[in-house]
Specification:
globular; alpha+beta; single chain; Vanillyl-alcohol Oxidase, Chain A, domain 3; binds flavin-adenine dinucleotide; eight-stranded antiparallel sheet; 14 helices; Uridine Diphospho-n-acetylenolpyruvylglucosamine Reductase, domain 3
């Protein structure tokens, strides 16, 4: 019989949200998950599955039953002919990558962080960059799900297609994802080239940058014109990187946290910090190459609050210029660097922020130096207002203040997703406070 724990406290990676689940389970098999759901039905409890707990919002929080999927993390099958891998839903990407390496395979694209689970990243619509690459959910070929009544349902493009289109970005509200099959590609190396530029240059030549590099993104340093351009492209070069690059980062970021902490007393320092660190760390061209997952993954340093909305790709210039103008008009509003700008191909996943349109994601952050919150409400609200004005859709895992009304307006397929959810989970077993705002 599955054993549950009382008194476990859950906190997300950034320690910005937490909860005290009534019971905490770490099942080791499908049968044990079924037992937890049966118990929840009997006792009329809610259930939330947690993966890596990295979402910078309360999407994974509950005061009911929490299921941690860490013990369901095996590779189930490798199909070398199709380059497909079937895994249990709780596998961390950090554990998946070396396994893929062994088989000469790789994911074609991935997010910045690898201490996250495959079911978690697809559940929240995690993305990286590359205008010819979709969000990570587009790499899923099929998946299985245990619904609230304990039944196991399989879906793919050719089997239960509507459910598949919903489950590819499932928000954790359709059931417990048990396993997934991923379309991989042969292992590859990437060369990363980073170089300094200006916001004007990048926005004026956006199409050209997008054509020049398969995985193009850039960092804008608010309160300045400075931009760091990042190209990542396939290469045959062996792994290489500059040692001083590492030390620059290590020293730079210890200093950054300290200076950002000082700036909590002297906010006017933030613009200076952004300019200074650009000059210190990012004002020269750098190159490195390595296996794709070693280039795609990068340190996100210390705790932070984030918002990350997807806007139609053709609005990129207008939106960034409006954000810059807004900051200039409000000199007391501070914005930490970087504003990260990434591009993603459109898809047909019902709740994907890239549903039916190529998109540009604009990620803003406010660090929490030594865990201290920096006032951000005005910046947050002003950013959201701009994103809404230009037809933006928020990242599901990150902060936003949207409710059902907003989502009905943003997502043409929202009613379809709701109908599927209500059919699979009529009593709302998989809801929590975050999801109530989305669906009620
Ligand atoms: C440092 C850092 C860097 C990041 N970088 C990026 C980035 O580059 N791009 C990007 O788009 N996002 C990024 N994110 C956001 C991150 O990718 C998402 O929050 C992702 O969902 C985290 O995965 P997780 O396993 O921690 O999921 P969790 O936070 O644990 O859960 C996310 C959702 O999935 C559900 N869930 C998890 N497992 C299951 C399951 N088996 N069955 C049903 N539901 C399940 C949960 O209930 C919840 O709704 C970053 C976050 C951090 C903290």
């Amino acid at each position: 019989m599955v054993h549950g724990y009382k008194g476990v406290k859950f906190q997300n990676w950034a320690k910005t949200y937490g909860c005290s689940p009534e019971m905490y389970y770490q099942p080791t098999s499908v049968e044990e998950i079924r037992e937890v759901l049966a118990l929840a039905r009997q006792q009329n409890k809610r259930v939330k599955v947690v993966g890596g707990g990295h979402s910078p919002s309360d999407i994974a929080c509950t005061d009911g039953f929490m299921i941690h999927m860490g013990k369901m993390n095996r590779i189930l099958q490798v199909d070398k002919e199709k380059n497909q891998v079937t895994v249990e839903a709780g596998i961390l990407l950090a554990d998946l990558y070396p396994q893929l390496d062994k088989h000469g395979l790789a994911m074609s694209n991935m997010g910045a962080v690898s201490e996250v689970t495959i079911a978690g990243v697809i559940g929240s619509g995690t993305h990286n960059t590359g205008i010819n690459h979709g969000i990570l959910s587009t790499q899923v070929v099929s998946l299985t799900l245990m619904t609230a009544d304990g039944a196991v349902v399989a879906c793919s493009k050719s089997n239960n297609e509507e459910l598949f289109q919903a489950a590819q970005v499932h928000l954790g509200c359709l059931g417990v994802v048990l396993s997934l099959t991923l379309q991989c590609v042969p292992q590859f190396h990437l060369q990363e080239t980073t170089f300094p530029s200006t916001l004007k240059e990048v926005l004026d030549n956006l199409d050209s940058h997008l054509k020049k590099s398969e995985y193009f993104r850039f960092h804008w340093f608010p309160h300045s014109e400075n931009v760091r351009v990042i190209y990542q492209d396939h290469t045959n070069k062996p792994a290489s990187s500059s040692a001083s690059w590492f030390w620059d980062y290590a020293i730079g970021f210890y200093l950054l946290e300290f200076l950002l902490w000082i700036s909590t007393f002297l906010p006017c320092l933030v613009g200076w910090i952004n300019r200074c660190f650009f000059r210190l760390l990012f004002s020269v061209k750098r190159e490195s190459s390595n296996l794709s997952h070693k280039i795609f993954s990068y340190e996100c340093l210390f705790q932070q609050h984030v918002q990350d909305w997807a806007i139609p790709r053709e609005k990129t210039k207008e939106v960034l210029l409006e954000l810059k103008t807004m900051l200039e008009a409000h000199p007391k509003m501070v914005a930490h660097y970087p504003v990260e700008v990434r591009f993603t191909k459109g898809d047909d996943i019902l709740l994907s922020p890239c549903f039916q349109r190529d998109s540009c994601y604009i990620n803003i952050i406010m660090y929490r130096p030594y865990g201290k919150d920096v006032p951000r409400l005005d910046y947050w609200l002003a950013y959201e207002a701009i994103m809404k004005k230009f037809g933006g859709r928020p990242h599901w895992a990150k902060a936003h203040s949207c409710t059902r009304k907003d989502f009905e307006h943003m997502y043409p397929a929202f009613p379809k997703f709701c109908a599927i959810r209500e059919k699979l989970d009529p009593t709302g077993m998989f809801l929590n406070a975050y999801l109530e705002k989305v669906f009620y």
